[in-house]
Amino acid sequence: MKKSANTDQDWASELFPIRILAERTSVGTSTLRAWERRYGLLKPQRTPKGHRLYGESDVKKVSKILALLDDGHALPSIAEILSANESVNSLPDSGLADKTEKLSSVWEAFIHSTIDAVGDFNIERIDAIFNEASSLYPIDMVTDKLIQPTITQLGTAWKHHPDTGVAEEHFYSSWLKNRLGARFHHAYSQAKGSRIICACVPGSYHEIGLMLFALSALSRGYRVLYFGADLPLDQLQHITQRSAAKAIVLSAHTSDEQNLEQQLISTLADIDTPVFLGGSANLIDNHAFEKAGGILLGTNISVAMKVFESHVAAYPSAEK
């Protein structure tokens, strides 16, 4: 028996395109496509023109895939687990199959290859490794498992290799800024959510952590107004009023400002918008900052993002 036109319309209205799945799961569209193409993790329906359509079951499946990744399972093993279970709801929560390849070994290989490529000052190889990782895994995971560990290892390498260590660290940092900048501009065109301000405090010039946070926020739909290093705090009130930003995220990795704590507390008194501070915990009196109404984010990007999301929604209304 043929379905009526109304039935077909109702069926289609329950489905949504890949960009909505990306917004709801914080997994990029390129990663979702790679999971489908390389591992068969998703099986979207298609419009007559071939566009992918997803439903609520796909949102649950992506959430389960992320949980399995966090539990240490690699993508090939996750594909086996999913194929062995007809329903997403029937999947066990953890401890799946001792034979599963641990994800840590995948990231160790990425890190090792990246550091080797940096040692050869080979941009093409660094690009290729990053492209491979970011095509298969969410940007938050790439940040936590590849970028931050690589920065840490290169940051300590100069102690053992004083002749080349500093050059290697600078080389990777420069590459990272350029690559994140390009990715940032692309991601901003997709973002439709709340505007937020991201800037380093006066006297702070280390932007990498702030850039990684901004990119993570963009992947969740926030529209990031990025001001970079050494922003005078007395300009934040004007920026906030003109842009209608819903939050201010400041980074304080290091600072040569003598009265930074006083400036921050004065800023909190002058601005109604929530002010968040990430980075080093040793630059100011954290208790005084929180007592004045500030919110601390710490140094871990994924944890900072969860804290931020608990205070400021990317999409305050039902409309996206």
Secondary structure layout plus pairing:
Layout: H1 5-13, H2 18-25, H3 29-39, E1 45-46, E2 52-53, H4 56-70, H5 75-83, H6 103-119, H7 123-136, H8 139-160, H9 165-188, E3 195-200, H10 208-219, E4 223-228, H11 236-243, E5 247-252, H12 260-270, E6 275-279, H13 286-291, E7 295-298, H14 301-311
Parallel strand pairs: 3-4, 3-5, 5-6, 6-7
Antiparallel strand pairs: 1-2
Structural summary, described in words:
There is one protein chain. The chain has 320 residues and is α/β, with parallel strands linked by helices. The chain folds into three domains: 5-90, Orthogonal Bundle (Multidrug-efflux Transporter Regulator, Chain: A, Domain 2), CATH 1.10.1660; 103-185, Methionine synthase domain (Methyltransferase, Methionine Synthase (B12-binding Domains), Chain A, domain 1), CATH 1.10.1240.10; 193-311, Rossmann fold, CATH 3.40.50. The protein has 14 helices and seven strands. The chain has helices at residues 5-13, 18-25, 29-39, 56-70, 75-83, 103-119, 123-136, 139-160, 165-188, 208-219, 236-243, 260-270, 286-291, 301-311; strands spanning 45-46, 52-53, 195-200, 223-228, 247-252, 275-279, 295-298. The strands form two sheets. The chain has a five-stranded parallel sheet, with helices on both faces. Strands 1-2 form a two-stranded antiparallel sheet. Helix 6 (103-119) packs across helix 8, helix 8 runs antiparallel to helix 9 (165-188) and helix 9 (165-188) runs parallel beside helix 10 (208-219). It is globular, with a radius of gyration of 22 Å. Mean pLDDT is 84; it is low at 1-11 and 94-100.
